[in-house]
Amino acid sequence: MGNTIDPIASQSAWQIANESTLLSWFAKGNYAYDNTYLFSATFRADGSSRFGKNNRYGYFPSFSAGWVLSHAAFWSVDEISFAKLRASWGRNGNDQIGDYSFTTVVSSGQNYVFGPNETITNGSVALSAANPDLKWETITQTDIGLDLEFYNGQINFTGDYYIKKTSDMLYASPIPLVAGTAAPIQNVATAENRGLELSIAYRNIEHSLHYSLGGNISFIKSEVTGLGTGGEPVYSGTVQSANAKASKTDVGHPLASFFGYVTDGIFQTPEEVEAAAFQNSGTAPGDIRFKDLNNDGVIDIKDQTYIGNPTPKFSYGLTGDLEWKGIELNLFFQGTQGNDIYNNTVRYDFTYVNRPSSVLDRWTGPGTSNSEPRVNLSDPNQNARVSDRFIEDGSYVRLKTLQLGYNFPSSWLKKVHMEKCKVYITGQNLLTFTKYQGLDPEIGSVGVGSSLELGIDNGFYPQARTVMGGLSVTF
């Protein structure tokens, strides 16, 4: 060691290690009477090292009951071969936050100048503010459902109505930059989702032709019912810089609703700029006109309002399967309807990078455009501010999977000592129908890891369209 390390020079070494521990207890009980009345209960207790000692443990019970109506003595509906009424209530928890969020994490190696000789001294800084009262995010759900089977399983129907309440939602709520640390994780809100889920499936077997069709649809209504941050709204969804948020969570509105300015076309002449509400000192023809919602003659934060909802009104799926004389066809469609997307990739185009083809339709003089503003890299009018200009319809329907295959007849395979042989071709994301102009509308909650970061397209890599062929052989 002495031959390799300078004893005079300052030496340092470092290593990063994160770890977390989960300790759980679990109990479950089931009871059935006459295969008609069904009961189940579970209880689990989880202790997570990601929370401080004040709230380390969470307790999560659940109960369910079912009544098989078709097994009852009074049942006499021949067309319905199976009927079951069920209800359940349960609670679970979420601890998906970073390790050590409940305490202050200190980083060394932060040099500072100290003393009359201005000596450079090695110091440490706090990376985040501690929150020793941080606790489990809990999800409580009540569900009432009905299962029906017609004609000995030829048609199946399932319906569910649920109420889902999320309490103590975990989120890194912003704090002033002068605090000098990263935003601490806090329990910020309570939200309630009410929904209806329906599914139906039909299958038929006619000689050599087998086929089945299925569909499901889910309706949901989301509303924030409480705030745990002193009643203050929570702003989320960074879209331009650390100080620009596109989403607002407040009581009485859907979770993480888009919040910003409302546009009103493009200024065409200096006279229009002069006659409108004051926006900025640099506002000029070709800039976006924003609506003065409170009619005070000035465009400011008081003119912001809700401009979109990232939660779909409903989502759905369609499946189809066919088998005929060794030929197999399987397909699956999925889609959403009524959700909005904040196309943040357009915002990036206001910097020194390549621009989309829409810039060719920009304003260049009176009457040339009433939607695409003039090009000005300094953006004196703040045309890039959060507004409904970036809100797009995120509804879509997509052919998610398609597979076509052929099973060779067993009479052929016996001659070559094979048991099974199938050749197939599979495609994924082959077709997408949408009005969204971004790369991929299927972005609802992808990549950001927070229930308050919804529907914002920051330019994530789109899902690939793939085609794959294969051969499966069994000897």
Automatic annotation (TrEMBL):
It is found in: Cell outer membrane. Its main location: membrane. This is SusC/RagA family TonB-linked outer membrane protein. InterPro entries: Beta-barrel_TonB, Beta-barrel_TonB_sf, TonB-dep_OMP_SusC/RagA, TonB-dep_rcpt-like. Gene3D superfamilies: TonB-dependent receptor, beta-barrel domain. One of its GO terms (cellular component) is cell outer membrane. Belongs to the TonB-dependent receptor family. The keyword Transmembrane applies. It comes from Candidatus Opimibacter skivensis. Keywords: Cell outer membrane, Membrane, TonB box, Transmembrane, Transmembrane beta strand, Transport. NCBIfam families: OMP_RagA_SusC. It is a multi-pass membrane protein. Residues 22-430 form the TonB-dependent receptor-like beta-barrel domain. Coiled coil: none annotated. The lineage of its organism: Bacteria, Pseudomonadati, Bacteroidota, Saprospiria, Saprospirales.
